[in-house]
Amino acid sequence: MAEQFDLVVVGGGPGGYVAAIRAAQLKMKVALVEREHLGGICLNWGCIPTKALLRASEINHLLHSLDQYGFAADNIRYDFAKVVKRSRQVAGQLSAGVKGLLKKNKVTVFDGHGKLAGKGKLSVTKDGKPVAEIEAKHIILATGARARVIPGIEPDGKLIWSYREALAPDIMPKKLVVIGSGAIGAEFASFFLNMGAEVTLIEAMDRILPVEDAEVSAFVKKSFEKQKMKILTGAKVQGVRKNGDSITTIVEVDGKVQEIIADRLISAVGIVGNVENIGLEATKVKVERTHVITDEYGRTGEDGVYAIGDLTGAPWLAHKASHEGIIVVEAIAGQHPHPMEVGNIPGCTYCRPQVASVGMTEARAKEAGHDVKVGRFPFIGNGKAIALGEPEGFVKTVFDAKTGALLGAHMVGPEVTEMIQGYTIARTLETTEAELMHTVFPHPTVSEAMHESVLDAFGRVIHI
Ligand SMILES: Cc1cc2nc3c(=O)[nH]c(=O)nc-3n(C[C@H](O)[C@H](O)[C@H](O)COP(=O)(O)OP(=O)(O)OC[C@H]3O[C@@H](n4cnc5c(N)ncnc54)[C@H](O)[C@@H]3O)c2cc1C
């Protein structure tokens, strides 16, 4: 006899578990099926453990900059196994926290693999054996995504790492090659660099962090290079050669082929949606290039089947997955949630220097036909950043010259990942330049640079 629910969610990542909790708040009887770890990639193999590692590399960097602050210490060293262990513990703690939250909200959790098994039906198996048959009027697919693999550069758990192996590394490589300079590649490159590795970052596009504003990409490149990272852009990886305990990457740049020998290689060339083996074949759910197609309320081509998060494509971000989960559930409950405004989803990269942005780049705004006003403010003009000893970076704001709408904001520098939310709220509230200029910012804070950037766009900057 199948167990009956109002809603079943397949996948317990930030999309799935948030959707399940919101549904429970709305008095639905909810089940969640998770085959591996509650918290999904984000808590276990993504957002959180990377930030725990990056905290360690930030501390290592600070310890090697002590003189700047009037301190001295000899024999600074770290225990790499302990650094990794702490990151895994943080991940474990948060995954256990999700289990507690689901219990508190009376969500029934099934440990196993969920697969659509007919209209309103889902089968759950564990190690190939049946665990449960579930029936629900609504099924949300939130199965996430995994690392994209380049043929010939498949992660092997030893010399070639995907993000999974890079998050639980068995050694601290002395020399490292990272292929792909999106957020994931840039964060790993920055982590290992700041822990003391010699890092080469390879990017096929003509600039690193290619989705960011071109000025931000150029600034981060310069900063990474100042930190002695080697960066190859417009670079085509032709292949790799494994040599016992090292790996040679063969790469072509400007028609010249070079070989880079490293201890390990991290492949961070994008992700693909987990669309396989979830029973989509027998449904009207449409899949395009490994991502499920949905409308603005997460509805797929199959009645009663919804999809959210990484499974539905870019931007591949935890907060996008969670927010989609809430929209879908509220729509199922008959509420009228605002559809997702993709342009208001902030993106952050926690490398050193940090990068954060929301909305359109200057180039995109111009392509979209806007007559723009652009403001810039460097942290070297900000008292708090100087006091912190981190005056590197800037804030750039892009406005529509006619309406004063904030089209985009782009930041690189200290704690910008904590500050971008200010501009995100402004965009969500459709705030104009006049209201932003009228806003009082506390002094001394790094956030004053956000105000100054707005002032600069309208010829009113004070401190530069
Ligand atoms: C190294 C790294 C760093 C990242 N850093 C950030 C960051 O700083 N900020 C940010 O916003 N995003 C970050 N991301 C992206 C973020 O992790 C994802 O966007 C987010 O996890 C997507 O959430 P989701 O719920 O859609 O899917 P996931 O988190 O992938 O969860 C899907 C879950 O479904 C389960 N599952 C899959 N198929 C089945 C099935 N058939 N039955 C049962 N269970 C199933 C999986 O086991 C998984 O637990 C990072 C990603 C990586 C890899």
From TrEMBL:
Its cofactor is FAD. Residues 345-453 form the Pyridine nucleotide-disulphide oxidoreductase dimerisation domain. Pfam families: Pyr_redox_2, Pyr_redox_dim. Binds 1 FAD per subunit. GO terms for cellular component: cytoplasm. One of its GO terms (molecular function) is flavin adenine dinucleotide binding. GO terms for biological process: 2-oxoglutarate metabolic process. It is found in: Cytoplasm. It catalyses: N(6)-[(R)-dihydrolipoyl]-L-lysyl-[protein] + NAD(+) = N(6)-[(R)-lipoyl]-L-lysyl-[protein] + NADH + H(+). InterPro entries: Class-I_Pyr_Nuc-Dis_Oxidored, FAD/NAD-bd_sf, FAD/NAD-binding_dom, FAD/NAD-linked_Rdtase_dimer_sf, Lipoamide_DH, Pyr_nuc-diS_OxRdtase, Pyr_nucl-diS_OxRdtase_dimer, Pyr_OxRdtase_I_AS. FAD binds at K51, G114, D310. NAD(+) binds at G180, S181, G182, A183, I184, G185, A186, E187, E203, G270. Its main location: cytoplasm. Disulfide bonds join C42-C47. Residues 5-325 form the FAD/NAD(P)-binding domain. Signal peptide: none annotated. Its EC number is 1.8.1.4. The active site is at H443 (proton acceptor). Keywords: Cytoplasm, Disulfide bond, FAD, Flavoprotein, NAD, Nucleotide-binding, Oxidoreductase, Redox-active center. PANTHER family: DIHYDROLIPOYL DEHYDROGENASE, DISULFIDE OXIDOREDUCTASE. The active site is a redox-active disulfide bond. Belongs to the class-I pyridine nucleotide-disulfide oxidoreductase family. This is Dihydrolipoyl dehydrogenase. It comes from Teichococcus wenyumeiae.
